[in-house]
User: Fold these one by one.
Assistant:
Number 1:
Amino acid sequence: MTQIKDPIKVYDARWEVSEFNDREVERLFEASLGYAQLIGVDTLVLTRDARLGCARVMEIGIKVAVNAGFRIFACFDPISTPMSYFATMQTSLKFPKTMGLTVTASHNPKQYVGIKYTVPTVEAIGYNCGPLGGLKKIKELYHNTRFTLTKIQGGSLIILQNPTDEYINYTFNLAGVKTGELSGLSVVLDTFNGSAGPELVRALSRAGVTITPNRIAPNGEFPTGSPNPTSQHKMDPTILLANQNNTDLIIGVDGDGDRIVFGDQSGVFSAGFVMIPILRSIFLKSDSTIPSKVLYDPKVNPMALLKWAELNAEPVLFRNGHSQIKAFMRELGALAGAEESGHFYHQLPLEGMLISGENSLYTILLFLLAVHQNKTIITQIRTLQDQIFTSGEFNFEFKDDTIRDQAMTAVIELFKNDQASLTTHSENGDDLEGTVVYKGVVHQSGTINLTDGWYAAYIRTATNEKGVVRSYISSGNRKVGKALQEKIVRLLKDQYNGKEID
């Protein structure tokens, strides 16, 4: 049986450049714009990052959109995904029925390309997330042989000016940072030859930060491999530079600029601990005494959540998924959110508009603002980081999904036998799309209590790859956490013949 090729994934459209020909990419745009017509969109903002396949995809998209009668604003300069969201926000002020299409493949290797979507008003969509099911509806149209995109006269193309200066001005005002205010801080900035390098260097230099640049120039070849700062050892050259130059901090950003890691000369910090100074900066600007809801994904360690709660945050568990987290933020009115994968989310206002989304410059400025006010925060985070064990995500691939499911069931039984508590749904009843495990971690009435030897884990099947189990462990005791990881690895490798993969 021939497998039908499908560019639609859970959070976006994504494929290898050689996998789809021009007609198939054109068909994706026809389906995307057919969906846009169904939800009343009349305007598009089309942007791109630096990767090699973007220009071809962008040109195909413009042709299809003009022929379908859409008003298109296009920025041809490589820019980050957060800046593309900002450009879509700006356009939406004048044209509220605007869809944003960002041509990018995020942190994937150079041979990939794809599209991230927003719908009015700058609302990220995913599969079964967004109006009419979001990407699910686009997928239906893509595969529906009877669907033909309605073509209307009057389509137009307007070239967008590069929005970097306006983006920086907006973000500085939002963070409450003045020119030169962060002088005295030194950072190694590594943008992995992605699109965010120029905008972040310009912004942080304006803030007064001393920057040691690494892999700053946008280069779609990604000469040092996939542009993902969260992958194991990817930040090692940056850590080495920090030691050579005696800098305060390291910052790594992925290929399209919406995934960030922070660290010091000893290594990277977990996203949960990074949120502590970020929340301090946010709460300093607030006079509310009511705890603010802040979302976290199942991999954020409980020690970090304990520290969030001490800062007047109410941690709320939600599953992995960029589009889904942003949608839940809006629904809940949450102030912020964090995923251990390096994604940070905020409420972003613009002239009466309020969206939930990523602005990496804002995240970085909030972090640096707290550190600038009290440099001991770096030591405090390092102390917390050294107190716990984190495995990082370790992944095993199996012969087929049947064996994968048997292997995952065996891992879950291992936790049950250890009398850990397991859950597959959040307090609101939302499917966590995996099993969250706690032992020695008690959530009660908005508080978190930890006992000696606590551990937490998240076990799930891969979203986009067949036959893959993904596991993640954190623990307050390095020996406990390491032993648990080794036990799971032995189980998956020896009993179920799993192959460890990146």
Number 2:
Amino acid sequence: MAKHLIDTDLYIDLIQSGITLPLIRELYDKDAPGIYFSSVVAQELLAGARSLAGRNRVEILFRPFERVGRVVTPSHGHWKEAGGLLAKVLQDRPDLKSKLPALVNDCLLALSARSLGATLYTRNRGDFTLLQGLRSFSLVVIN
């Protein structure tokens, strides 16, 4: 069975508009048992929820995944590997130093997808293709 991991930006679109992108809707309709939820995504979404209603909308997204045990959380190994990858980014691209904090979660998400054998879905082409150049993982960028 194929496995799928969806980035925060796509869930934000869903929360804000109430409309899922056709590709994400198709995944949920056809391959729901293969979709996993990242604890990194949960953290990012909850950090952006500034009201009780917003927090409730976020929790509606990840609660089903918690119930069935399909939440992916970065391991200690992922954190160590992320440190090495981020150091490589800075070595190769010192101009990205100010962007480094934003890359931490993206790196953890990419490594989680890789270890799960999942395809990562995002709109964030720049950050994830940069990381993909350092460590291979399955990626679908949605326009």
Number 3:
Amino acid sequence: MLRFLAAATVSLMLSLPVFADELVGSYTAYIGQADIYNSKGQRLSEPWQVLRQDRANYHRFGISQPGDEWDPFFGDINNRAIMERMVMNGTIDPVAARNLVNGGATVFVRIYGSGSTGRYVRVTVAP
């Protein structure tokens, strides 16, 4: 009986649909001097902080540099608030992270999730 239950459980698990995250948005941005300081003038030291400030500058404060693009996700302040988690759940190359924090870099950000829920980002920086 125990074997039957174990086999039935495995069979059920294999028959459930797999929910894969989909690309819910993407954007390109140039990280300028305004993006590496927060709204209080403090220098930012983490990649997620710079990405979040860049999106706040773009969507909330109307500050942008040539190369900045609109995105469908981070216009919402609540979505910007989860930027740290999304970067931690995603990928960012260490060299890209350093270049991003130093400013003067063009970043490509792909936002993955389901529907309007973002789960992680993949960040690359142009050489």
